[in-house]
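Follow-up to my post from last week.
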Amino acid sequence: MIPWYFLILGGLAGGLVGGMGMGGGTLLIPILTMFMGIEQHLAQAINLLVFIPTGIIAVIIHAKNKLIDYKVFGVIIIPAIATAVGAALLVGQLKSETLRLIFAIFLILISLFELFQAIRTSVNNKKKITKPILKHNLYPPRNRDF
Amino acid sequence: MTAKKVCGLLTAGVFIGVINGFFGGGGGMICVPALLLLGLSNKQAQATAILIMLPISIASAIVYYTNGFVDWNTVLYVALGSVVGGVLGAYLLKNLSNNVLQYIFAFVVMAAGIRMLF
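User reply:
Got it. Predicted complex:
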């Protein structure tokens, strides 16, 4: 039996990352499986269910701020629900170890994608910072070489 | 809406559904960049992605539940922490402007992935 405060802490960590818009579930699932020894299928189900209350609150706030594109939602949701149900049914047939292994590969791919995004943001930020310095010519030419 | 955009959205929908149903999460990480590619603004993409993830998560959760993969006691505690964490995270985000967190997140997820492989 896992202590309740451990579970709350795990949820807190996942929620914190999710609230920052960085994929809280991607972190919550490994926290639940690695640190708390929860079975992979159960951890995934927890993540799905936990997202629902937070998601509802977020959607209400975003709808008030008129940030939701309902036309896009209407089109994308049809194939998304169908394939989600199909994939969830398939997952039920898989062994825990197999699912865990596939999930690990998924995490590595996601991390590489995130790393690429982070590097791109850094490069863009650098461009924004260096441009005005060069424009105003703040440094004398002899200091530029190093 | 152009035919090209509809095709793009339908394709994105297929991938988002597969990822989220199969892994019980991570769909949002595919959804936001896909919506950005299809011309939504950053804020619009984030907001619309959450609305998209909501019914997908509910539908997938029902399937997981019928397969016997739900332990309500655990869900309750994790959800409690997650809601508090979510509010805190959204508040903290306003006060952070650099992308150091993005790097930390990428490395933590990578470490978790490698650890889970072995």
